[in-house]
C-alpha cells in the first residue's frame, strides 16, 4: 500500500478487462483497485475478493428489530397499562399476539433494511460531501481502469498490460487519500 | 431414457399393498354399532372422571352442532336426558365412522394437489419463458401424469363417502319435513348439491387433464420438430390454462375442501389452498429431481437449478404463511361467532397439529433455507423438503378432520396407511411416466440457456 507509484491500465471492454484480470492474477501481481462504470458480473470472483457478509448483518439487524417490537408491545400493551380495548385479551403477550404480528413484521423489515443500508454506506465510505476518489472521470462513462502497485518492475508490468489489450498504460504518482 | 428400477417399483407396490391393508383395517375397525360406542364412552368416562353427567353431554352436543354430522342444533334445556345421551352417542358414532373416509380423502387430496400444483408451476414456467427450468420440464411432466387418476380418485371418494365427509350431501338436510333440516345448508343448495358437485368436478378435471395432455404432446413433438410451432402452441395454451386454473382451483377448493364445513366460508380460502399445493408440488419436484440426479439420470441439472427450486420452496412457504395468517388473524380479530367457530374447534381440539404445522411450514423452512449456501446442498434441501411435505399434509388434515371426526382425531393406522397407499400409487404412476420420454427436452428454445444456467 505504501507504493508511491501505480500503473493505471485502461480498457474499453469488460470482457477484455476480465481476461486481463485473470492474466494479471496468474502472474501474481497485486491489483489495488478496479474502476468500472457498471457492475461487471464475475469480476469480484476473478479478483479473488472475499464474499460480502452484509446479508449476515441484515439477518442480525432483523432479529434486533423483532426484539424491539416484542419488547415494546409487551411493555406498552401488556405490562404498563393492560386496558380492555374492544375485548382483546391483554392478559399475556401470547394471547394477544396475532394483533402484534403486523408490527413485529414491519419492524423486523425496517431494522434489517435500514441498518443494512447504513452498514453498507459506512463500510464503503460513502456520505454526502465526500470527495470522489476517481482517478479518471472516463471510468464513470465507458472506460475500465485497473490500478496495480509498482515495486520497481514497471517495464515488465507495462508490457504485460499492453499484451492484455489495454488501450492506455500510464505510470502515475499515487495521491494520498 | 430412464428405466424404472425394479427396486423402486417393488417399493411402490409394497407401499400400495400395505396401504390397502391398513385402509381396509381402518374401515373394518371403525364399523362400530351404537352399543359399542356407548360402551366405549362409558369406559372413557371412567378414565376421565369429570364430565360424566348427561347434562354435560347435552352441552357438548350443542357445541358440535355446527359441524357435520347430519344433526341439527339440539341441546335445548327442554330435552329429555335420555335423548341427549342418545344424541351424544350417535354423534360420536358418526365421528368414528367418518374417520377412515376422512383419512383416505386427506391423503388422496394431498397427492392430487402435488400434481396439480406442479402443473400450474409448469404452465407458469412456459408462459413466463423461464430460462432456468426447461431441464426440469420432463420431471414436471412426469409428476403431472398423476393428476388425472389422482383427481378422479378424490372425486370418487368424495361421492362414495357422501355425508361421511360432506354433510350437505345428506338429503335430509335440505328437506324441510325432516328433523335434520338445516336452513343454512338448504339456502346454499343451489351450489352445494350432488349433481352440481359431480359436474363441476368433472369439468375441473377435464380442463386440467386436457392442458396436461396437450402440453405434454407439444413438448414431445418439439423434441423432433423442425420449427418452433409446438413451442408457440405450448406457450398459448399455458397462458389460457393459467386463467382457467385460477378460477377452477378456487371453485375446487370451495367444493372439495371448504364445503366440509358448510356453515363456514372464507374469501381467501382458494388462494390459501393454492399456496399449499404450489409449495408441496415444488418440494416434490426438488425431491424427485435429486433422486434422479443421484441415480445419474440428470447430469444437466446442477446445483444452480437446485438453488432456484429451493428458493421457490422458501418463498412459497412464506407465501403460504402469509395467507394462513391473514385468514386466521382477520377471523380472530373480528371474532364474529359464525365464522370464528372454525378456528375455535381447531384451536381447542387440534392445538398440536394446528400450531405444529406453522412451525413445520414456516419457522423451519425460513431458518433452514435462508442461507444461499444451504440451498445448494442436496441433503439439506431433502431434509427441509420432507418437513415441508409433512407440514402440508397436516395442513390438509387440519382442513378436513375437524369437520368430520372432530375431537376423535388421531394420526394412526387409517391415516398412515392412506398416505402409504397414495404415496405408492404416486411413485408408481410418476416414475412410469418418466420412462416414457427422454429426461431432457430437446428442441425447446430455452434448453441451451437452461443447461448453462448459472446463478
Automatic annotation (TrEMBL), chain A:
Q: Name one Pfam family in it.
A: ActD
InterPro entries on file: ActD (IPR021776)
Bilayer-spanning residue ranges: 54-77, 97-122
Q: Which domain of life is it from?
A: Bacteria
Keyword annotations from UniProtKB, A to Z: Membrane, Transmembrane, Transmembrane helix
Q: What is this protein called?
A: DUF3341 domain-containing protein
The organism named in the record is: Flavivirga eckloniae
UniProtKB/TrEMBL annotation, chain B:
Specify residue ranges for compositional bias: Basic and acidic residues.
66-82
TM stretches of this protein: 103-124, 145-169, 197-214, 235-257, 269-292, 312-332, 352-370, 377-396, 416-441
What keywords sit in the KW lines? Membrane, Transmembrane, Transmembrane helix
Task: Specify the domain of life of the species encoding this protein.
Answer: Bacteria
| Biased composition annotated in UniProt, kind: Low complexity | 55-65
**Region of interest (Disordered), ranges:** 50-82
PANTHER family recorded: PTHR43044, QUINOL:CYTOCHROME C OXIDOREDUCTASE QUINONE-BINDING SUBUNIT 2
What name appears for this protein in its UniProt entry?
Answer: Quinol:cytochrome C oxidoreductase
Amino acid at each position: 500500500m505504501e507504493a508511491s507509484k501505480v500503473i493505471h491500465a485502461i480498457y474499453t471492454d469488460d470482457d477484455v478487462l476480465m481476461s486481463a484480470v485473470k492474466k494479471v492474477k496468474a502472474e501474481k501481481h497485486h491489483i489495488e483497485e478496479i474502476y468500472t462504470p457498471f457492475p461487471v458480473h464475475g469480476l469480484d470472483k476473478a479478483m479473488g475478493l472475499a464474499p460480502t457478509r452484509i446479508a449476515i448483518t441484515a439477518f442480525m439487524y432483523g432479529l434486533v428489530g423483532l426484539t424491539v417490537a416484542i419488547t415494546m408491545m409487551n411493555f406498552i400493551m401488556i405490562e404498563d397499562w393492560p386496558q380492555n380495548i374492544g375485548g382483546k385479551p391483554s392478559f399475556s403477550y401470547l394471547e394477544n399476539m396475532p394483533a402484534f404480528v403486523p408490527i413485529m413484521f414491519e419492524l423486523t423489515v425496517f431494522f434489517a433494511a435500514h441498518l443494512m443500508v447504513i452498514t453498507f454506506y459506512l463500510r464503503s465510505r460513502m456520505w454526502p460531501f465526500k470527495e470522489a476518489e476517481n482517478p479518471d472521470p472516463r471510468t464513470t462513462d465507458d472506460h475500465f481502469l485497473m490500478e496495480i502497485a509498482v515495486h520497481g518492475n514497471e517495464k515488465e508490468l507495462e508490457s504485460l498490460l499492453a499484451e492484455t489489450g489495454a488501450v492506455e498504460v500510464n505510470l502515475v504518482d499515487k495521491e494520498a487519500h | 431414457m430412464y428405466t424404472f428400477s425394479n427396486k423402486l417399483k417393488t417399493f411402490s407396490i409394497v407401499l400400495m399393498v400395505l396401504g390397502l391393508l391398513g385402509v381396509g383395517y381402518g374401515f373394518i375397525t371403525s364399523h362400530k354399532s351404537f352399543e359399542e360406542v356407548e360402551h366405549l364412552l362409558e369406559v372413557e368416562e371412567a378414565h376421565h372422571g369429570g364430565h360424566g353427567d348427561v347434562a354435560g353431554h347435552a352441552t357438548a352436543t350443542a357445541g358440535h352442532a355446527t359441524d357435520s354430522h347430519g344433526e341439527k342444533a339440539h341441546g335445548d334445556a327442554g330435552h329429555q336426558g335420555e335423548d341427549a345421551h342418545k344424541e351424544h352417542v350417535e354423534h360420536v358414532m358418526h365421528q368414528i365412522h367418518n374417520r377412515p373416509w376422512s383419512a383416505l380423502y386427506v391423503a388422496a387430496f394431498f397427492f392430487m394437489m402435488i400434481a396439480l400444483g406442479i402443473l400450474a408451476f409448469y404452465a407458469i414456467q412456459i408462459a413466463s419463458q423461464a430460462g432456468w427450468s426447461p431441464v426440469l420440464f420432463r420431471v414436471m411432466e412426469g409428476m403431472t401424469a398423476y393428476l388425472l387418476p389422482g383427481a378422479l380418485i378424490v372425486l370418487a371418494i368424495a361421492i362414495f363417502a357422501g355425508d361421511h365427509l360432506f354433510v350437505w350431501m345428506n338429503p335430509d338436510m335440505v328437506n324441510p319435513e325432516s328433523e335434520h333440516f338445516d336452513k343454512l345448508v338448504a339456502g346454499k343448495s343451489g351450489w352445494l348439491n350432488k349433481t352440481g358437485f359431480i359436474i363441476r368436478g368433472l369439468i375441473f378435471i377435464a380442463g386440467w387433464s386436457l392442458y396436461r395432455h396437450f402440453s405434454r404432446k407439444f413438448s414431445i413433438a418439439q423434441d423432433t420438430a423442425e420449427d418452433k410451432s409446438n413451442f408457440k402452441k405450448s406457450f398459448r395454451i399455458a397462458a389460457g390454462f393459467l386463467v382457467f386454473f385460477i378460477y377452477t382451483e378456487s371453485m375446487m377448493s370451495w367444493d372439495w375442501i371448504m364445503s366440509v364445513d358448510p356453515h363456514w366460508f372464507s374469501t381467501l380460502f382458494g388462494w390459501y389452498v393454492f399456496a399449499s399445493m404450489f409449495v408441496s408440488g415444488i418440494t416434490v419436484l426438488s425431491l424427485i429431481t435429486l433422486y434422479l440426479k443421484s441415480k445419474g439420470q440428470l447430469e444437466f441439472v446442477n446445483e444452480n437449478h437446485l438453488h432456484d427450486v429451493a428458493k421457490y420452496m422458501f418463498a412459497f412457504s412464506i407465501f403460504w404463511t402469509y395467507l394462513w395468517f391473514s385468514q386466521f388473524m382477520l377471523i380472530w380479530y373480528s371474532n364474529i361467532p359464525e365464522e370464528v367457530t372454525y378456528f375455535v374447534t381447531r384451536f381447542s381440539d387440534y392445538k398440536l397439529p394446528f400450531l405444529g404445522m406453522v412451525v413445520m411450514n414456516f419457522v423451519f423452512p425460513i431458518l433452514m433455507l435462508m442461507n444461499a449456501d444451504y440451498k445448494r446442498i442436496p441433503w439439506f434441501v431433502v431434509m427441509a423438503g420432507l418437513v415441508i411435505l409433512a407440514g402440508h399434509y397436516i395442513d390438509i388434515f387440519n382442513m378436513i378432520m375437524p369437520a368430520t371426526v372432530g375431537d376423535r382425531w388421531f394420526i394412526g393406522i387409517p391415516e398412515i396407511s392412506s398416505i402409504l397407499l397414495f404415496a405408492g400409487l404416486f411413485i408408481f404412476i410418476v416414475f412410469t411416466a418418466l420412462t416414457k420420454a427422454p429426461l431432457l427436452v430437446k428442441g425447446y428454445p430455452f434448453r441451451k440457456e437452461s443447461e448453462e444456467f448459472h446463478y
